[in-house]
Here is the input.
Amino acid sequence: MKETASLLYSVFKLRIGMAIMLCALAGIAITPGAAPGGWQIALLAIAVLLSSASAGAFNHYVERDLDARMQRTRGRPFVTGRFRAGPVWLASIGLMLLVAVGATAIAVNPFAAAHVFLGAFVYGVVYTVWLKRRTWLNIVVGGLAGSFAVLAGAAAVDPALGPAPLILAVVLFLWTPPHFWSLAFAYRADYAEARVPMLPVVVADGLAARVILLHAVVLVLLSLTLVAFGMGWIYALGAALGGAYFVHACTQLVREPGTKTAMRAFRASLAQLSLLLLVVLLDSWLLGA
Here is the structure.
């Protein structure tokens, strides 16, 4: 039972799903206006987690042939046979997404529901099916998945979407490529073997590192502009500290391109995003931004 639960946690990518759920809560917190009721916020958070889980499972389902060719992923359940790919899985994944979108449309509003759907669609279909095997721009477009979670939360407060949530959504859009490229840099031999054209596979190490750094610098600078749109000192301090840490790690990657520095940049990206979302929530709730 414990092993099955661990496998389901992996297949549904619940760790990523929790981060995406926090993006939706940050979208609610950062948007001016009357927040929805507590039960609506809870339902939206669960719906975003459910839609993310459906997209994550679909990703595992579709990419089982790629996963079998990569050292990092060849132990995934659809590869090892612990889970058998088939119509039951596809039906379950589709039902999860339908429940998430339908519940949001009924309990919150259709605009929030549309963003919940688009987040899963971009990751599951646009990124996984259409782009991943074809172009290094795959994860650039795929970065919209997290952005739609922010917009889902924002639309629950105000479907018109003001500048603050739009900026945060763009920050999430810019965050995803350097986050994933750092991981792909560390495992570029795996991606090359599987013939997945991630940026670190198709360009020289030095250029890939500089592109990662450029993305990090731009997203951090953009995140700091939210101070001009109502965020207070808690947010400013957290965004600056987390951003400086991420940029420093990416600078080290440029100076010494390699697996160790790439993994440091990857871990720094996770720390930066976690801190950023946390201070959005703390600043909005404690200072009333």
Notes: The chain has a mean pLDDT of 95. The longest helix spans residues 259-287. Residues 2-287 form one domain. Residues 172 and 289 are 20 Å apart (CA to CA).
